[in-house]
Amino acid sequence: MRRQTVTIKHVAAEAGVSLQTVSRVINKEPHVRPAVLERVEAAVAKLGYVPSLAARRMGGSRSYLILALNDRDRTIEGWQSDGGTDWVDQMLLGGMLKCAEHGYRMIFELVDTHAAHVEREISAAISSLHPDGIILTPPHGDNPVITDLLTRLRVPFARIGSAGEGAGFSIAMDEAAAAAAATDHLVQLGHSRIGFVTGSDEYALSVTRLEGWRRAMAAAGLAAGDDLVRHGDFTFRSGAAAAETLVSGPQPVTAIVASNDQMALAALHVAQDRGLAVPGDLSIISFDDTPITRFSVPPLTAIAQPIAAMASRAAELLIEARGQPAETAEASVLPFRLVARASTGPVRADG
Amino acid sequence: MRRQTVTIKHVAAEAGVSLQTVSRVINKEPHVRPAVLERVEAAVAKLGYVPSLAARRMGGSRSYLILALNDRDRTIEGWQSDGGTDWVDQMLLGGMLKCAEHGYRMIFELVDTHAAHVEREISAAISSLHPDGIILTPPHGDNPVITDLLTRLRVPFARIGSAGEGAGFSIAMDEAAAAAAATDHLVQLGHSRIGFVTGSDEYALSVTRLEGWRRAMAAAGLAAGDDLVRHGDFTFRSGAAAAETLVSGPQPVTAIVASNDQMALAALHVAQDRGLAVPGDLSIISFDDTPITRFSVPPLTAIAQPIAAMASRAAELLIEARGQPAETAEASVLPFRLVARASTGPVRADG
DNA sequence: TTGAAAGCGCTAACAA
DNA sequence: TTGTTAGCGCTTTCAA
């Protein structure tokens, strides 16, 4: 025997107080006598009252909704590919659970960044949902069209994986340090000719990672010329092309730092095709640490991004912002991990 | 300080008509003169008007929200495990995109099925969101506590992977046929002692798959005694235990049908530990076809579930239902695929 | 074919 | 510390 819908009115009647008092109680506002608070809470429990999100949004200023914006093409491609990604899963793990803790919901939304109508798409989502905050995933946080729009609309937002100053909360790992750590890992293993495959230029972190590699090479007193750098775009194909040229020629590299797992996997294939042993002849280390790193042969050593932690932090900051863009956009830097697996090893004595 | 928003009022003023007329236009209702319709649409386009979901829910009966209910523990475990799942991703792929097509949103929600408060958790989500429909994922569709609750609350729901008659739309693949196909695949390869590892009893499909195996064995004129059946619960550990006993003893099996990938992977490990070649000494076939099947060594032959298609169909049916539980709960049966990889092969001559 | 009025369930601003 | 009064932006009667 279930009621049709229990509203704040029913609770007020049951507790013998006004609507406003009930509202205060469910919003944990001060200025409610303990005795009254108790009565209202009892009524809420008895009737199984849960406030309607839609009504709260209508009356007040908050919607209790956080919007997570992801790149449509890339996400769908990931879902349809055989490889499996866990970017989305980790986002949900971190973001959804944090939202749930605070009575918020996270709505996952795909937007087509490349189309001329990014602004329209995002504006529409905002008009429709009136989210209290927006989580921007790479490379959206680096897209001024988007960040400017959100600033103008005064919707608080968090940029995941975007370290720039700018508006909105910046939540990222230290990409340069991570690339340096990856490079250093190889240096420690005795490598001196360490190639680097960049990610797409669209991502600011692509440049930052390259800088990290340069820094580590310099610190180790190694040459870091352009002959060791290849431009990739995160795709398998670009990784393969990059690896091809790095391992051929008069001065082949003995190790490669790839800016993501797909490109590292491509390097692995190239090595196999050429009869190069991994890590015997070629060490490979990558960024992201998606599931494929664990199942490739050999498993890939990789830099793991704290995606869940970043999403969680983003949600937290946005919820704290209570719908108002923060004046002081703080930057959170979360720790990365270097997961050593079997694709990296000591350089050959005859290297 | 409220955020500037274009409302139906502005559109009405711009087009010189009443609110109702605008409402009719955006809801594609009849009885609007073409000329007026055009004027309103022009105003909508000019002002960039997008109706507010919250307001639509408040005024009318629909919320434009579809709730996807997933098992909390299992989902979080999948996210946290190293393996990577793609159940959630495929759900989003199918469900979200279909919802988006119709101006709906899909909200992904985790519920703790095992706790005594399932009813409270689900009732709360419904009270809060007033979804127009709910997608139940396994094993929720087989849980009478949940299906009865939703029936009582008159919220339309779709059961994914649940074939029973009952209330709500049933959307599933033919589990028995799939298990039979998997078994048959092995029979064709010359196997006669084919073991079967079941899934958790909590899932109705566990029983159905077992029946499919029995059917195929019988059809092939093979013995299908209980000595060939082991009870698993979808975990790696249970799969390992099951495989252990199937490959040992006086009459070891030459092939195993495992009810999910994790258990198949466990069987693979058991084979390796015992020095059994796969598929030379032991063929393994599994259900689900998550990413791990593609990266294990050898890659696993598996039955792929049409998860995205099922989620898409579920969303479609619920949207069509327009918030009213359908009288005739139709059942959709979607096709599965057998993906042949390297873990199954001909039985040894001396087998 | 159109429009006017009455809410939906809640919160913000103000009174008491 | 509590209650009262307006709306929020839409859809749903119902009337014209």
Oligomerization state of this entry?
A: homodimer
Number of helical stretches of at least 4 residues of chain A: 14
The number of strands of chain A is 12
Give the topology string of chain A: H per helix, E per strand. HHHHEHHEHEHEEHEHEHEHEHEHEE
Strands of the widest sheet of chain A, in order across it, are 2-1-3-4-5-11
Unreliable residue runs of chain A: none
- What would the CATH topology of the largest domain in chain A be? Rossmann fold
In percent terms, what proportion of residues of chain A is strand?
A: 15-25%
Beginning-to-end CA distance, first to last residue of chain A? 78 Å
**Average pLDDT taken over every residue of chain A:** 92
Count of domains of chain A: 3
Helix fraction bin of chain A = 40-55%
Which helices and strands occur, and which strands form pairs?
2 copies of one chain form a homodimer.
Chain A: H1 8-15, H2 19-26, H3 34-47, H4 53-59, E1 65-71, H5 72-80, H6 87-101, E2 105-111, H7 118-129, E3 133-136, H8 144-153, E4 157-160, E5 169-173, H9 175-188, E6 194-197, H10 204-219, E7 229-230, H11 236-247, E8 255-258, H12 261-273, E9 283-288, H13 292-295, E10 301-304, H14 307-321, E11 331-334, E12 337-339
Helix pairs in contact in A: 1-2, 1-3, 6-14, 9-10, 11-12
The structure holds a DNA duplex (16 and 16 nucleotides).
Summarize the structure.
Chains A, B: This is LacI family transcriptional regulator. 2 copies of one chain form a homodimer. In chain A, about 45% of the residues lie in helices and about 15% in strands.
